[in-house]
Amino acid sequence: MCLEDAFDLGYRQLAISGGEPLLYSALPDLLSRARALGMVTTLTSNGMLVTSGRWDPLAQLVDVLAISIDGKPAEHDAIRCREGAFARTVANLDVIRASKVPFGFIFTLTQHNVDSLEYVVRLAAEHGARSVQVHPLTLHGRAASLLRDAQPDGIELVAALFEASRLGNKLGIAVQVDALTVEQLIEYRSHVVPDRPVGDLVDVAPVLVIDADMSVVPLTHEINRAFQLGSLAHARLWSLARDWLAAGKGDRLAAACEQTWTELTGGDGPQAFYWYDEVATRTRVLT
User: How many other C-beta atoms are found inside a 10 Å radius of the C-beta of residue 26?
Assistant: First the structure.
């Protein structure tokens, strides 16, 4: 019933990522239920399991597929800790194209690989991908131990924004960087800083993360766990949302967003930021 509750609360997209979603046995049912509700369905995969046998039954249930490509072959294989991962993923792109499902690449930006973005965008153009999403590395899961020193800083984000604009114009591929400049933060303040008092969950948490352990977290994995809504193992989503708002956690999260906005727009530091990670950083010092 989680999807039905989410829809009633105002959420209109189901985005499934991993681990690897194609290993999830209930994936077809989950996508079907989301589609029946009228939700947009998106799936992020490492691409290694996108064979005809696995993909063809799912294709009609997915609106957009994102394939993780994390740089040149050696870089990609190193991040995936698997030799040959890049070649296997690229070989499976034929299956995706044959299904006619729109797809793009998602590129994990680290402190060291912005110079590989052009390779990935050219690869997208070569293989018929519609876009490249550049997502800054966050220190969650395996990255927290293996890539702790690789998280991009503001300078790297600015470089990625510049490259995205240049490559998009040059190669005709939409390149989106999950980062905001100071100018964008100022212009679109109302989009990132919720009004208080918060009346609806979706107003302060436009993204809900459902973890493998069934805990529900607003905005991003990295947020202070004091802000989690609770567990779906213990209550329905609508009940968790009601109690969370009644406890004032929505207003506290909105206050953290306002504090983040004020600090980012008033400082002299880097001029581009991954918003959700910046908010998460500030919630970690809250009790």
Answer: 8
